[in-house]
Specification:
With about 260 residues, the chain is α/β, with parallel strands linked by helices. About 45% of the residues lie in helices and about 15% in strands. Helix 1 runs antiparallel to helix 2 (about 40-65) and helix 6 (about 175-180) packs across helix 8 (about 235-250). The longest helix has about 35 residues, at about 1-35. It is globular and about 60 Å long.
Length: about 260
Amino acid sequence: MLSRVAQVWRLCATALSYLLFGLGALLLTASWFPLAACCRRPVQRQRLAQTMIRGAFRTYLTVLSAAGVLSYRIHGAERLRQDGGCLLVANHPSLLDYVLLASVMPQCDCIVKQALWHNPFVGGIVRAAGYLPNADPESLFSRCQQRLQQGGILLIFPEGTRSVPGAALHLQRGAAHLALRCRADVRLAHIRCEPATLTKGAPWYQIPRRKPHFEVTIGRKVAIAPFLAAAQPESLTARALTTFLTQALTFVEPGTSYDG
């Protein structure tokens, strides 16, 4: 009986969390982000907006945890302070992965769907933070390269979409090609959620019987130089790098350090 009551409460709290996210996004767009427009330089505006997003996401996760919707731990977040001009590559099991990572990233540049730029709830956030729309593949690479040269951290989920629970990890090669062309090192991040929730194809109201727990491990940085030194065609090198990233993100146990 207590377990059932707890599940019903988490269902109601989950519904409220969606409402809270939408209202929070509108509040940021309407009140906070106009302050960022006072910065003369676009880079300063974007960094200020990203700082606001980080604070808002931390608050949001604190509320979800306090309400019993979920629990979470993030290991190795301090490693992100060492980064600049690199990719942060992560697996993508849940809808909350971006929120979890962006809540601890000093800077967070992201490639997003073009449709999000016109979304009434998050469009203002996406534009203010300077996230990169994927509508124009021809110019996307140069814009990513520019952000990396400015010292940004580019967050990428190379699966391209949320993974299916129980299925083998399948990474697309876009992240590997970007790392090779920009000569950017890759920071690894592994996300695990047990039991699974907010997965691909699952409706929001399909919540597990137990409270889900997220374990996020910010891992080691993979140097891109050894892959470039192979002197192979880019397609073969990208394939080798993608295989390496797939193995690295598949076999990490929660809480395990990547150091070494």
